[in-house]
Write a structure and sequence with these properties.
Elements: H1 13-17, H2 23-34, H3 37-48, H4 50-61, H5 71-83, E1 87-91, E2 97-101, E3 110-116, E4 130-132, E5 135-137, H6 145-161, E6 164-165, E7 169-174, H7 184-189, H8 193-196, E8 199-205, E9 212-217, E10 219-228, E11 232-233, H9 243-254, E12 265-274, E13 280-281, E14 284-293, H10 296-313, E15 327-336, E16 339-340, H11 346-358, E17 363-367, H12 372-376, E18 380-384, E19 389-391, E20 399-401, H13 405-420, E21 422-423
Parallel strand pairs: 3-7, 3-8, 8-18, 9-17
Antiparallel strand pairs: 1-2, 2-7, 4-5, 5-20, 6-21, 9-16, 10-14, 10-15, 11-13, 12-14, 19-20
Helix pairs in contact: 2-11, 3-6, 3-13, 4-6, 9-10, 11-13
């Protein structure tokens, strides 16, 4: 058999704006790609390198990456990007890591793959990783060491098999996805002209599995509400306005706010603290509030309801003197925009065609991921899993089973080369 001819889907903006690109056409092109010699060699590489991928996953999991403390893991990933032949490997001022696999068409926009490198675990978490039977264990081993490993697997397979791409492929390890990181890493990337103007598509690799396509960005806003007063002794200063009592009134009023079933909208009081002792009137009390919805209008409504609760509840708790009135502050500590990929997007047709080719079943889901940022800007993005399976997310008992990882890697590779195009080395 002679060498496979170049195979190229329309690259970047062309494929994403094409109205005529139907599912059947995408299936035919994916079928051609799937039998390409270089891609078949890459598929075989995934099988033969399975143990190496597990070792890399345990290695990166053992490096702490707490919120705002991802430096060591960022440096580790940059070193691996260099080992696997990526060009222009560098880290930005936040710690985001970049590596480029150049394409034969340097004028084409980037096809980007990202995986967040941070974890939810604080810096003092004891990070103990191990392999037990067929599973890997450790805090963050699935979310998102499996995604980081997938990036490295794609880079290593393309390097080892000399699989050529037409559009350049950008690999990103980004910081600040979890919790109060508020998507700061990917948000910063899309604020930089070099990237925002030149990334055609972002494929976010987050967690395990192959059964979902996150094409609908769940919006969330988070607030810190602080009530302050003069404080005092519970006996001698009885009657001084109490911030904790005021905050309780705020909670009671806010949680009476009705929310719709569709679009699903939720709120949660996740943290509350204040005071110094049982016999002290506190000087301050604070709570943190999480609101979520698929609708920006509903998020706006909940924000107004929170301010209304504060405005009405605080004056109800007044002290004996005018100077003892309470003060309240509502501060936004997180804002993840809600946005959806259009249902007729060519990107969705391509991922569905990839799944059909691989015999994989996946459903569209809504979630909050790094894809929220490009989606909110009207850009093309989805989030998918790295393959395998995982459990115990956000606990020290987290685990990952690499059984099925190969399917996930095939899925990512086929989708990437479908967008970037494959030619001759």
């Amino acid at each position: 058999m002679g060498p496979s001819p170049p195979v190229r889907l329309p690259v970047g903006e062309a494929v994403l704006r094409s109205e005529s690109q139907g599912l059947r056409s995408a299936q035919q092109q994916i079928a051609r790609l799937a039998v390409h010699d270089g891609i078949q060699e890459a598929f075989a590489w995934f099988r033969t390198s399975a143990r190496r991928f597990e070792d890399l996953q345990l290695e990166v999991t053992a490096i702490p990456a707490p919120p705002w403390g991802e430096v060591a893991r960022s440096e580790w990933l940059a070193a691996r990007f260099g080992e696997f032949g990526l060009a222009d490997v560098h880290r930005d001022e936040l710690g985001n890591v970049f590596g480029i696999r150049p394409g034969s068409d340097p004028s084409a926009p980037f096809i980007a793959l990202s995986a967040h490198i941070d974890t939810v675990f604080p810096a003092d978490t004891v990070t103990s990783v191990r392999r037990d039977g067929g599973k890997l264990y450790g805090p963050g081993v699935s979310d998102n060491s499996s995604g980081i490993t997938a990036l490295l697997a794609i880079a290593s397979a393309m390097q080892a098999t000399r699989l050529a791409n037409i559009a350049p492929i950008l690999l990103i390890g980004n910081v600040g996805e979890e919790g109060e990181g508020d998507l700061r890493g990917i948000r910063h990337i899309y604020q930089q002209p070099r990237w925002s103007a030149n990334i055609a598509t972002l494929l976010v690799i987050d967690g395990a599995g192959t059964d979902t396509i996150i094409a609908e960005g769940l919006g969330s806003r988070r607030y810190e509400v602080t009530v302050r007063g003069h404080g005092g002794h519970s006996w001698s200063d009885f009657g001084v306005a109490n911030p904790i009592v005021a905050l309780a009134r705020v909670i009671d009023r806010f949680t009476r706010t009705p929310v719709p079933v569709s679009p699903k909208t939720t709120y949660n009081i996740g943290i509350i603290h204040g005071g110094t002792s049982v016999n002290s009137i506190p000087e301050s009390a604070t709570m943190r509030v999480d609101t979520r919805s698929a609708s920006v209008d509903e998020l706006d409504r909940l924000e107004r309801a929170l301010h209304d609760a504060v405005d009405h509840a605080i004056p109800e708790i007044t002290g004996r003197k005018k100077q003892e009135l309470l003060a309240a502050e509502v501060r936004v500590i997180g804002n993840r925009p809600a946005a959806d990929l259009p249902a007729d997007s060519p990107l969705l047709k391509i991922i569905r065609a990839v799944d059909m080719q691989l015999g994989n079943t996946a459903r569209i889901q809504r979630a909050s991921t790094d894809a929220n940022i490009p989606l909110s800007l009207g850009r093309q993005a989805i989030a998918i899993g790295s393959g395998g399976s995982g459990g115990g997310a956000h606990t020290i008992h987290e685990w990952y089973d690499p059984t099925g990882r190969e399917l996930g890697l095939k899925r990512i590779l086929l989708l990437t080369v479908a967008l970037a195009g494959v030619g001759e080395e």
